[in-house]
């Protein structure tokens, strides 16, 4: 059914039933609370709003993929219905059962030309059930294109109200704030933010945060060639919230939460590295240790740790060549998901090793004034080594073991020469000479002779 036919059909219902409507509903319209009549509008006369806040990220992503949705066609209708159902399947099942048991309890809102402003999900579920062929709705006195700002205000206040927020995927509120800001910003940034806050039922500071986070999200998508494909942000909201806070803290000033003398170039590196970890879906404590909180609690707070962490990261990825994006793919999301999967399978273990080794360094620095704790940790680490493994006998590993033993003995000697002598005695006693290869016997005899000379000199000094 085309637009003009819908207008005529809906007008016929209004003219026929305006003296005896189904009911009345007060809604905020043009800055006043107006009492409007409720009508039973056949579902066949209605069209879903493809820019409904509940599925905004999905429809924008599809359009970026050159998959334009014509909601007036049967195919477009089915596409929107599937997106609405997938947006919150568990909640939809509960609402569907409620509609099946009791019918439509909450009145929707439509325009004169049949576009659903509030109630897209309910209309979709009624269509699925097929028990009734009408939708209870208030009919606004305008078409969708006649007063778009007032309609967006009404839609936002209804859809993003306190009772509805839980039903939205996390990314949708960021896109809603961005879209509204783009429309309202010509009248002044502060005025735009104030209006959005009022419409969304939020504080101005919350809207500012939403706009800041979506800006970083857009930068992330651009970094990997995913501009406008917001489905690639799924499951990553918390990481972007944290990263946005870090960048706001560090850029353009010398924050006490970062290492001394850092520059904006260092913050640029932080952002790029964080993007890679977000892409690999690191989250929680593992992600926050990069730059979250007081300087002693994260990598970016210590120049030595940060430098080696950063250099190791860029060394890992420097030769990586990603496949070209096929924007003509019939299923671009699956194509991009696979591209991200290849990235993760290539680097996840390397990222993990780099993160864990530097986290260990951070923990050691944090415990620098707690030597007992660090020594116990070192013993536990050494105990975990499989000394019978062939790699333990490799020259590089043996040199590291020698260095570790030397550091331990030097530390012991400074505080307790007697313990040092006792340990050396025990070590010498425990040497199994039968394990010395025949080709090394002459060298062993020389070491024994030199040790005897050292012991003689030590005895003379003590006496």
Could you give a quick summary of the protein structure above?
The protein is of the alpha+beta class and 463 residues long. It has helices spanning 3-17, 56-64, 74-87, 89-102, 120-129, 148-159, 170-184, 189-200, 204-223, 237-250, 264-279, 284-288, 303-317, 332-366, 371-383, 395-415, 417-429, 441-462; strands at 23-29, 32-42, 108-110, 116-118, 134-139.
Describe this structure as you would to a colleague:
The protein has 463 residues and is α+β, with helices and mostly antiparallel strands. The protein has 18 helices and five strands. It has four domains: 3-157, no CATH class; 235-366, no CATH class; 385-427; 431-463. The protein has a five-stranded mixed β-sheet with strand order 1-2-5-3-4. β3 and β4 form a beta hairpin. It starts with a helix and ends with a helix. The model has no long low-confidence stretch (mean pLDDT 89).
Number of strands: 5
> How widely separated are the two ends?
111 Å
Strand order of the largest sheet: 1-2-5-3-4
* Radius of gyration, CA atoms, in whole angstroms: 34 Å
Major pleated sheet: 5 strands, mixed
